[in-house]
Specification:
heterodimer; A: alpha+beta; Butyryl-Coa Dehydrogenase, subunit A, domain 1; Butyryl-CoA Dehydrogenase, subunit A, domain 2; Butyryl-CoA Dehydrogenase, subunit A, domain 3; four-stranded mixed sheet; four-stranded antiparallel sheet; 12 helices; 14% strand; B: alpha+beta; 2 domains; globular; binds flavin-adenine dinucleotide
């Protein structure tokens, strides 16, 4: 029953010196960063912050040195990631590139692509977005309709992507689309590396979320020309390439720390005098956090050994989303204190922000139902 | 953990722990012959350090035996004997052999009488007491933890059992213990509650893995509406939920086992035991849902496992006990933030 086995992270995985360095950096950089900004968690955007982080060597940590990386382990990267998230640092500008696009380019890209892009990711300069979902292709990614047709010198792309987080500021998109016909439902797909700033005929328009925020977008490709060297990896291998990104995308600490600012606010208020029932709930929340963190670190350890723990990652994301989604309910059960968007009381503001954020946690990156389907298949249901 | 001792235990339990053996044990019959095999294999000594006569298996690996025993529903005090021997060895007391068990000793009154220690009080829900030679417990004497090795023949044992029919006896204690049976406990093992909670967490994880396996097999085999019920998405979602809970519990229990005898243990074991108890609720309920009526019978093996995990919730601290302890620690910690509390007090080499 290997699916339920999460090997302990190797001894020394705490990297205490590194952790203290990151804490000292964050204490200084985020000294005036208020709780309601921290509540945005990894959705917070600051190119400046990402660049400063990179200057300390904490972006592209696992990338090889010849591509501007630091050749450090996935577990060291994990320490930095979790410290950033626990502090509510604004990381999205480099997050997707650092987490999955960079590793994907390193694994599948051409030498030219690697040389041109990866060092700039490691410098914290590039923001990436993911172009997978479409109006008629959400959970069913293989139903994608956007198509790239081969033409002289490259491809012409037509189609519409939606929910593309930060496409409006991103420098690059990794596009997933159809490049050919195939009898296999998963065949005939490819990935492209698109320079959004230099490519014409791409229309990016905002989609405002229910919190009134502009994070995601609709991206329309209208006969958009991409040069041949925009192809990322093998033509027709897009499906397996996308699948190999998922373990990176689904297992990190961002899959259970998205509501962490609210936890800190809650505990700050309960510290003075908590009833036994409140203590027990905080204990329960602590226990689950310790366990999720251990599971997630275990997956980082497996990634470090070059394994593909996609199933374990699905488990982490499913349990993690349940956890982070439950925090507002828990807070409300322990304190009678209303949520006020943008309120002056930081607890009230953080609660309001988090309440509106949590419905997305079991949608983005693969819905709960889809993850459970993957886990069920992994269990050997025929 | 593909070690020799692991393989040996797996084979031994697979060959000898049958549904019938579990039924007989639940009816009150101690599987003596199986215990002899366990002793011959030396499994009961696995947690004893090499210098005290063990064979130098790392603690986390030795504790892995408890998970395997849980996975087979072993109706014998192997987990208890492992812990008892480790505690006796730590206190420098003789390892007398035989079946041992453990109990939380805080309820006992101790006083020095001449060269002996007099112990008096009432222990409840002592696992397998009537099948054991000795009860090993930890209690305070002169403000310090002391290990007591109580010969069962000198105690009054009143039989009682848990949901699974396993002996959980009442024990009246009123006796003088010579120095050979009472000694101070050095180091950071803590009380018997934590150690008991550790083994129950590991056994729960093992039992849940078996419950999950049985449920997946059943879902693949049972046909309704012309197809295996495992094809129905509702059933798939249940099984996936069970897998997540099982994986989390196992991770939690192994995290506690990794920090056995270190400062981080106090928190990791609290997380492990409360997670195990909570998961037992979900996994047990869903397993019975997947199995339908057949799983609700004495004839089917499922109940041996679900009843065990439900019972273990109540031993060595319930979910409420452990979450309260953990919550108190979190809320009173001197750390600047909750995050620092969590990371620093569970790190390897953490100081209390
Ligand atoms: C905040 C946010 C950010 C996002 N960012 C990006 C991004 O940057 N790039 C990108 O490409 N996408 C992004 N997405 C899109 C995300 O990947 C999709 O929302 C997700 O894959 C689900 O697709 P859908 O929304 O079309 O829902 P649908 O697939 O239509 O699902 C609706 C409901 O039906 C259920 N369902 C669907 N199929 C099945 C099935 N086979 N069995 C059982 N239930 C099923 C789902 O679980 C869900 O409950 C983002 C989404 C959110 C909310």
């Amino acid at each position: 029953m290997t699916l339920t086995a999460f090997p302990s992270p190797p001894p020394g995985a705490d990297y205490d010196d590194l952790r203290q360095e990151v804490r000292a950096f964050l204490a200084e950089e985020l000294a005036d960063f208020p709780p309601e900004k921290r509540a945005e968690s990894w959705n917070g955007f600051s190119r400046d912050f990402s660049r400063k982080l990179a200057q300390r060597g904490w972006v592209g940590m696992t990338f090889p040195k010849e591509y501007g990386g630091h050749a450090r382990s996935a577990l060291e990267r994990y320490v930095v990631s979790e410290e950033l998230l626990a502090a509510g640092a604004p990381v999205i500008s480099h997050w997707i590139a650092d987490r999955q696009s960079g590793p994907l380019i390193l694994a599948k890209g051409t030498e030219d692509q690697k040389r041109a892009i990866v060092p700039r990711i490691a410098a914290g300069e590039l923001c990436f977005c993911i172009g997978m979902s479409e109006p008629d292709s959400g959970s069913d990614l293989a139903a994608t309709r956007t198509v790239a047709t081969e033409v002289e010198g490259g491809f012409r792309v037509n189609g519409t992507k939606v929910w593309t987080t930060y496409a409006h500021v991103a420098d690059y998109m990794i596009l997933f689309c159809r490049t050919g016909k195939s009898d296999d439902r998963h065949g005939g797909m490819s990935q492209f590396l698109i320079d959004l700033k230099a490519t014409e005929n791409i229309q990016i328009s905002p989609i405002i979320d229910l919190g009134g925020e502009h994070h995601f977008n609709q991206v329309v490709f209208d006969n958009t020309f991409l040069p041949s060297d925009a192809l990322l990896g093998e033509q027709g291998e897009g499906w397996s390439q996308v699948m190999s990104e998922l373990a990176f995308e689904r297992s990190g600490p961002e899959r259970f720390l998205s509501s962490f600012a609210l936890i800190e606010e809650l505990i700050r208020l309960l510290r003075k005098d908590a009833t036994e029932a409140q203590q027990a709930e905080i204990g329960r929340l602590s226990a689950h956090l310790m366990v999720l963190r251990q599971m997630s670190r275990s997956v980082a350890g497996m990634l470090n050994e070059g394994k593909n723990p996609a199933l374990q990652a699905a488990i982490v994301k499913d349990l993690g989303a349940l956890y982070e989604q439950d925090i507002p309910r828990l807070a409300r059960s322990l304190l009678s204190r209303p949520a006020v968007p943008g309120g002056r009381d930081s607890y009230a503001a953080v609660l309001a922000y988090t309440e509106l954020a949590v419905p997305s946690f079991s949608l983005r990156g693969g819905t709960r139902e889809i993850l459970r389907g993957i886990i069920a298949r992994g269990l050997g249901l025929r | 953990m593909e070690s020799m001792i692991f393989d040996m235990a797996e084979r031994l339990f697979r060959d000898h722990v049958s549904h019938g053996l579990r039924e007989d044990a639940a009816a009150g019959q101690c599987p003596e012959a199986l215990w002899t095999r366990i002793e011959e294999a030396g499994l009961h000594m696995a947690l004893v350090p090499e210098e005290a006569g063990g064979f130098g298996v790392p603690a986390a690996e030795a504790l892995g035996l408890v998970r395997i025993a849980g996975a087979h529903g072993l109706p014998l005090p192997l987990a208890e004997t492992l812990i008892a021997n480790a505690v006796l060895a730590r206190a420098g007391l003789a390892l007398s052999g035989g079946r041992l068990t453990i109990a939380e000793g805080e309820v006992l009154q101790l006083e020095r009488r001449g060269g002996a220690v007099h112990a008096r009080g009432h222990l409840t829900l002592v696992p397998f007491a009537r099948w054991a030679d000795r009860i090993v417990t930890i209690a305070a004497l002169d403000g310090a933890d002391h290990v007591l090795s109580l010969p069962v023949k000198d105690l009054t044992v009143t039989p009682a059992q848990d949901l699974a029919g396993m002996p959980r006896d009442d024990v009246a204690v009123d006796l003088d213990l010579p120095g050979a049976n009472a000694a101070a406990l050095p180091g950071s093992m803590g009380g018997m509650r934590g150690l008991g909670a550790l083994v129950r967490s590991l056994a729960t994880a093992g039992a849940m893995e078996t419950i999950l396996k049985m449920s997946v097999e059943y879902a693949n085999d049972r046909v309704q509406f012309g197809r295996p019920i495992g094809k129905f998405q509702a059933i798939q979602q249940y099984l996936a939920t069970m897998a997540g809970e099982t994986a989390a519990s196992r991770t939690a229990a192994e995290m506690a086992a990794d920090s056995y005898d270190t400062a981080a243990f106090a928190l990791t074991v609290a997380a492990a035991k409360s997670s195990a108890g909570e998961a037992a609720e979900t996994v047990g309920a869903l397993a019975h849902q997947v199995h339908g009526a057949i799983g609700y019978t004495q004839e089917h093996a499922l109940h041996h496992f679900t009843k065990r995990i439900w019972s273990w919730r109540d031993e060595f601290g319930t979910e409420l006990d452990w979450t309260q302890e953990l919550g108190r620690a979190a809320l009173s910690s001197p750390h600047d933030t909750f995050w620092h509390f969590i990371t620093d007090s569970t790190a390897q080499g953490a100081t209390a």
